[in-house]
Amino acid sequence: MSSASKKQGTRVFKKGSPNGKITVYLGKRDFVDHVTHVDPIDGVVLVDPDYLKDRKVYGHVLAAFRYGREDLDVLGLTFRKDLYLASSQIFPVPEDSETTKRPLTRLQERLIKKLGANAYPFFFELPPHCPASVTLQPAPGDTGKPCGIDYEMKAYVGDTVEDKPHKRNSVRLAIRKVMYAPSKPGDQPSVEVSKEFMMSPNKLHLECSLDKELYYHGETISVNVHIQNNSNKAVKKIKVSVRQFADICLFSTAQYKCTVDEKCSQESEDGFPLGSGSTLSKVYELKPLLSNNKDKWGLALDGQLKHEDTNLASSTLIHDPTQKENLGIIVQYKVT
Q1: Residue 71 has pLDDT above 70, yes or no
Q2: Which of 109, 203, 216, 296 has the fewest Cβ atoms nearer than 10 Å?
Q3: Is the model's pTM score more than 0.90?
């Protein structure tokens, strides 16, 4: 077969129930939050009508915040909080369903054509205030599912939507909601501070600026530092660092701080100590990477599917401050 005649394939995620009676097809497992809207979750469920008889097939999407290990769930108490739930009936398709009002996606059309009349489309839409998929890095030796926010798409057989799904005729698929950076960057960050000292007639002036506001994973952050020492003190060293701030918005807000990269200038290096009347201008380069922070328990990471590699959690974009408690974990970074 010539290369010109080869058709480029479309990647499809497929998972069936243990008894093989229902199968879920998804075109992707990462759904992007564009701030104004979130990519819809759409796919197809293949059913066996002879097995279902008069029963129905339901689907739901659940975002949950797990804040304790699964092996600690005892006496009916679970260390998890459900943050969002969307449910709908997939088969038979209700007349007033959103699915009937929307045109099929190209992937749904191709799957239904290939799978036949027993394939039925589904469609879920997440609101913008839903939390992003974030995992808290476990301590060395911890086993089981890590703490954090995860999403799950489930399809199951039942008589009503409230029926408890049975493992044999249900399908569970882990999915992720990821945050993409805005395409329009903001202003170049800069700050100036002056410090007075007792018995010193003049001040120590410090000015810091970044080369840009928006950084992608793995990019180098260039910090431009300018020191003008008009005081009668000597500046012995300077430390420049990137810190991650993770606000855990559960029953009450707690904040975790973690340094993810730093540079420190010692005495006799880089022009230090900086005596009275001296000036120093220097660019420090920082590159925060997960590979250098594997030992830090509680560090916020982007959500994982199975055991794939991930990275430091992306910054949370907040477009409605009143909805903070629905975001679960709010991640920010600061250069200090």
Answers
A1: no
A2: 216
A3: no
